[in-house]
Amino acid sequence: MIPKNNSFLRLLVIVLALVLSSCERDASKGYFREADFNDQWLFHMGDMSDPSKTGQDDSEWIPVHLPHDWSIIDYEIQDSLHEGPFYKNLPGGKDVGYLRDGFAWYKKEFISPKNIGDKHVILGFDGVQTQMVLWVNGILIGEHVYGYTPFQFDITSSLKEPGKSNLIEVKTANPGENSRWFAGAGIFRPVNLSVLNPVAISPWGVYVTTPDVSVDRATVNIEIELSNKQDSEVVVAGKILIFSPDSKQTTFVTDEVTVGANSKTTLIASGIISEPALWDINHPNLYRAEVRLEADGKELDSYHTNFGIRAIAYSVEDGFLLNGEEILMKGACMHHDNGLLGVAAFPDAEYRRVKRMKEYGYNAIRASHNPPSESFLNACDEIGILVIDESFDHWVKPKRTNDYSNYFKEWHIKDVQAMVYRDRNHPSVVMWSFGNEVKERADPEGVEIGRTLKKAIREVDDTRPVTQAVCEFWDNPGKEWDYSEGAFSMLDIAGYNYQFLNYESDHLKFPERMMYGSESVPQHAWENWEMVKRHHYVIGDFVWTGMDYIGESAIGHHYIVDKQASEQSTFQKPWRWYVSWCGDIDILGNKKPQSYYRDVLWGESKLEILVTTPIPEEMESRISYWGWYDELNSWNWEGHEGKVIRVKVYSSYPEVKLELNGEDVGRMQIDSAHKFTALFELPYAPGELKATGIMDGTEIESVLLQTSGPASQLVLDEEMDVISADKNALAFINVQAMDQAGLIAPDDDSELSVKISGPAVLQAAGNAGPMQQGSFTDNTFQLCRGKGMVIVRSTGEPGTIHVEVSSKGLVPGSVSIKAN
Hints:
820 residues, mainly beta, 8-stranded parallel barrel, 6-stranded antiparallel sheet, 10 helices, 14% helix
């Protein structure tokens, strides 16, 4: 066991107050559930000796607050190979954005609660990346090997008597070459602590379904799984208080049931909600169920969960129906990282990502290729986004040397069911996916694995369709597309990766098969969306990818070659690229060029204007398969005066007009056959470029691009001027370089410095560019195309946070934010 030094004794006082306050809050009950356990951890980078040995030195441990991602911590040595947290020669670096792997430790002391008696102490993790081992007081408790699934440990038997200090130690490992994308490292999702009676509701043991739903009434069924860990039977009953979005209360009760000693049982309640407030993407109404477990008039446990009253159905004739209305899924695939924050799943960051996607017109997200955080799904519930919840990127056959395939046989049932148990009450989740492009997807052994996974899912939840994402057999040379029938055979709805050309022919062969584009590329956005609009059996399209992510470096790149060259794009680009660059949205949450085009296809906008970056004569710009054309919504092209430049107007108006500095450039008639794109060429001159949409001869609306002057000032735009005085509360501050007229200067890439005062710390700062940018966490960063971001985190105290950003030659910018 690691001995305590003076710093630990001081820490002990703080932690004691934290834990005792949690107990005191529920003192009348004698138990508590899922108390916040994220504060007052210590962290050590690198491996260390067995925790049961004495003599450990705490001097190199640093305090951290969870969630935490140690893969974005700067290397101690900075040289030509190490820049911030990036390592140029990292094996598999292109996959993970060159961000560090290895081992690291966390530890925390806490006091055994008073009057613990026969209660059970449960430590719950929403996710630890990538592999972890837990010790309590030097006693090995257990391990978890999949970074994305939640889990709990009962640590009761390893605790000291009430009032004594206990030491929790967690070893985390990112072995390297274990992922095709940036996975991150450490305790990157929240941790909680529960102290429960021996008769208690099981983890994720409350299951709410709504089998019959109409605007007039809805049937609500509630199953309560509980365990009795004592040596005598007990008679229990359940009482459920259901609160509507407007706080109206309905009460359900269960019959009394006798639970045998050291056994489990399930209580069932059912009732009717009149005139329910239905959950849908435009009205994400949430109900709350508070479940109380009672025996002899005494409350033994309570459990609360949100749920939505909604009905889903699907057929080749009617498509995907939500509450009887067809929904065309405007979808995005999304990985789990939070850009400058690494993979740390701060609730505010998860909510912001989902909110951004909804604001930009998306109504569905495929959580690719792993279960997301609980906070992410909470946000989807609250904002109104449909979710495909996905479990695995590979099964038995590996994609990388150290990936989860090494553990799949032993862990896959436990992990897929953990996903479903945790997520089954989320109304946003409308499909379960058990795989993505797995190598053995259509082979006999793969079909058997798929059936096993589907059965495991259905044991926990049978109210949603089951799917997987299937691609062509590039990884199985010699197999043709028809061989995919095996992969689709066990699915309720078929996920097609990049296969829109096969929709109609497959429908003729398999007329009952429901389909969706589980992945597509931006350059085929029009073709894919046409299929969704045209056929009810194609329920949606999910672009790869909705938002840029770290890793798979530069799969969405463009490149310039001689017009006569036969050169083909490589899959990825080398150092210094670290971002995928295939997203509709960049890692700061800003729209990229393809997103403006998608707005027009989806009807979110009727008119957009983009300018193709000029290229030398005799050269041409090409894009990778996942890329988009080198365009910007900018009219700053200094040095190209008088040279021909290309302008694209994306519009659903039947006619568009382009003007430069008040003079006509030309008009074009366009429609869907032109893929809503008008191409103009004109000599560049600075000033004002104006596109106008025309209908029946009448000019309806216009979009402008203006040439800016040189940057003269920094302007800060805080997304919220008030945040919570909570240690996980974040404030996102957009930083822009502007000219004297207030126009963004897109050519400015200035180096900036950040100064923070008040109850906050700098959590991250940087830009959205795809190239490696040094430290995420120091107080200097660089703009990219005139934009950057500062993210600050509350220290947990109320007060005014002041942020100032400065740069040589520019007027500094500042904002003040209240923490309440």
